[in-house]
Every structure is written in structure tokens, then in C-alpha cells.
Amino acid sequence: MHKDVLLILMTIVFLAAPVTTASAQNDTSGVTALKNAPKAQAVVGSWVETVTFPPGTGRPPLTSLVTFHDDATMTCSDQGSVTLSDPSVFTPCHGVWTRLMQRDFAYTQLELISDLSGNLAGYLKVRGIYTVSASGHDYTGTSVAQIFDTNDNVLFEVEVANAGHRIVVELP
């Protein structure tokens, strides 16, 4: 009986212990906050992402800014949103994400494509799965990007590799 009471007291002390310490309060890198964050929200935050296309496409990697919000929505903005090879303008993306497993997340995003006169020409849909690293500072994954015309016909499809690095607070 004494052993049971001791176990219960230890559990209560452990659960009631504050998760911040003096060193955690002085941590400006965001590492401590990430360690204490629930794994289900590991992707929440802003990221700099590199999108790498297969060698056969002839397209160099591009950089994207991506934000995953805690309400399971996302936004992003890609480098090169205006293209001249097939004159068009891409809007920033809007999408949704869901947790698959502890650090694995799936997402779907859409971008509108307009011609240089502002007429809707189609849209870009990107769907992928990312795995956030144990540190919480990086992710990797693959995505399928599809370009559709205004009648929902697939004009182009490619699988790309994604690698993201978390944007953290830096003091001046």
C-alpha cells in the first residue's frame, strides 16, 4: 500500500512540475519551445523550403516560403511566381494539412494561374507528405505537382523532392 501511495505522489509531482526553467526562459533559438511542443503540431510554423525537380525537367531548384498554421491551413509563396516561357502569373498558395503519424504530415495546396492580362488560365495543385526531423528544425518529403487548365484537364505533372528549414526568432 505504501508503494502505491509513493507512486501516485511521484506521478502528481511529475505532472505538476513546470516545463520552463531559467535556461529555457533565456533560450532565444526556439529549441526548448519545440522540445516541449506537442508532436501533433510539429509542422506548425514558417519554413524556407527548397523544391528540387527531377533532372529530366531541366528546371533548377526553387525556393518557397511556407507557413503551416495551427488550424490545419497553410499558405506559401514561391520564387519565380511570374514565368516568361509561357507567360503566366501564379498566386501565393492556400491549402490544408493533416497529421498522419507522430511527425508525418500530408498537405494539399492550390495556386491560381493567370495570363499576363489577368485572365484565369488554370491552377497548380500540389499534394505531398513531409516528415519533420526529431529536432523539429527540418523536414523532408516528396510532392506531386499538377497544372490544370480551366476545364480541370491535367496539362503537366511532376514529382518533386522537398526540404524545409524552420524560420526561428533571431534577436537583433
Short description:
With 172 residues, the protein is mainly β.
What does this structure look like?
The protein is mainly beta. It folds into two domains: 1-29, no CATH class; 37-166, Quinohemoprotein amine dehydrogenase alpha subunit, domain 2 (Lipocalin), CATH 2.40.128. The protein is 15% helix and 48% strand. It has helices at residues 2-16, 22-25, 31-36, and strands at residues 45-52, 62-68, 73-78, 82-83, 88-90, 93-99, 104-114, 120-132, 138-149, 154-166. The chain has an eight-stranded antiparallel beta barrel. The radius of gyration is 21 Å and the shape is globular. The model is unreliable at 1-38 (pLDDT under 50).
Spatial extent as radius of gyration: 21 Å
Helix share, percent: 10-25%
Shape: globular
State the major sheet: 8 strands, antiparallel, barrel
CATH topology-level name of the largest domain: Lipocalin
The CATH level-2 architecture of the largest domain is identified as Beta Barrel
The largest beta-sheet arranges its strands as 1-2-3-6-7-8-9-10
Look at the helices and sheets and give the structural class.
mainly beta
Tally the beta strands. 10
Query: In CATH's first tier, which class of the largest domain applies?
Result: Mainly Beta
The CATH homologous superfamily of the largest domain is termed Quinohemoprotein amine dehydrogenase alpha subunit, domain 2
- Number of H- or I-type helical stretches: 3
Taking all residues together, what is the mean pLDDT? 81
Order of helices and strands: HHHEEEEEEEEEE
